[in-house]
Amino acid sequence: VRPFRIVVAGHGEFAAALLASAELIAGPIEDAGAVGLGPDDAPEAYGERLREVVGSGPCLVLADLAGGTPANVALVVGRDRRDVVVVAGATLGMLLEAATGLTSLDDAPIDGLVAAARSGVVRQDDRIRSPRSV
Amino acid sequence: VRPFRIVVAGHGEFAAALLASAELIAGPIEDAGAVGLGPDDAPEAYGERLREVVGSGPCLVLADLAGGTPANVALVVGRDRRDVVVVAGATLGMLLEAATGLTSLDDAPIDGLVAAARSGVVRQDDRIRSPRSV
Questions:
Q1: What ipTM, to 2 d.p.?
Q2: H or E stretch including A49?
Q3: Interchain CB contact of B9 with A (< 8 Å)
Q4: Are the beta carbons of A40 and B67 closer than 8 angstroms?
Q5: In sequence order, which residues have a C-beta less than 8 Å from that of residue B86 and are 6 or more positions away?
Q6: What are the beta bridge partners of residue A36?
C-alpha cells in the first residue's frame, strides 16, 4: 500500500482528465483525487475543496502549472505541513510513476520523481537525427 | 500568425482537457486541435484521425507520454515529413509556450521549448527550504 495520497490540482478539466488517462493505462489508482479550478472559482473556495481532498495524512500534490492558481493554492494548503509535497508541471508520466513506483515522500525519491518527469519531456520525431531547419 | 498548427495527442480525455485548460488561461488558441485515444481505439484508426487533424502543413504534435500509443502513432504520422515535430511529455506550460511564444519549428526554438517545459517541472513546497525526511 502506498503510504501517501496523490491529488492532482489543475485548471478546468485537466486534473480529472490526467487522473482518468493514467487509469486508462495503469488501471484504477487507489487513494487518489483530482481537484479542478473552474473559471469562476475564487482561490479561497478552491482552497477549501483542495484541502478536503488532500486530507490530513501524507499527500503528494501534482499541480498543472508552476505559478498558476492550483499550484499556488496547493502551497497554501501544504503550508506548515511537512507531509504535503507539491510538484508543479504535472505530466502523465509523472503521475504514473508517482502512483506505481514512488514509495515515500522523502526528499530523495521526490527528487527522483522530478528528474524522471523531466527526462520524459523529449522531442521524438526523426528530424532530430538529421537536423536542418524546416 | 503562428506558422504552424498545434495538435495535442493523448490517452482518453487528456488531450482535449489540456487544450481546454490552456484556453482557460490564455483565451482561444487558434489553429489547434486535440485527438484522444479511446480505450477501444485501434492504433490504425487513431492514426487516421490524428493524420486528419495534423493536416498537410507544418505541425507541432504534443504527445502525452513517450512510448505511449499517441506518441508512437504521431511519429508514424510525421514520418518522412520534416514539417511535423513531435514532443512527448506534454505539460500545460509547454502548450502555453507553444501557443503564445514559439514562432517556428526550427530546431533551436524546439530545443528551447523542451528546455522550458523541463524547467517547469519543479518541486515547490516549503520543505525543500529545510529538507528533512517526513
A1: 0.94
A2: helix A43-54
A3: no
A4: no
A5: A123, A124, A125, B61, B63, B71, B74, B75, B78
A6: A10
Q: Does B92 touch chain A (CB under 8 A)?
A: yes
Q: How far apart are CA B132 and CA B87, in angstroms?
A: 35
CB proximity under 8 Å: B 45-74 to A: 58, 63-66, 68, 71, 74
Give CA–CA dist B90/A89, Å, rounded. Answer: 9
Q: Which residue has the cell 484504477?
A: A28
**Cell numbers for B67:** 512510448
Phi, then psi, of B35 in degrees rounded to 5: -130, 115
Q: Do A125 and B86 touch (CB under 8 A)?
A: yes
Q: At A129, which amino acid appears?
A: R
User: Between B86, B121, B131, which is nearest A89 by CB?
Assistant: B121
What is the C-alpha to C-alpha distance for residues A116 and B112, in angstroms, rounded to an integer? 19
Query: Does B134 score more than 60 pLDDT?
Result: no
Judged against a pLDDT cut of 90, whether residue B37 lies above it is answered with yes
Grid-cell match 482561490, residue found? A43
- Reported as a single tens digit per residue, the pLDDT across A34-74 is 999 999 999 999 999 999 999 999 999 999 999 999 999 99
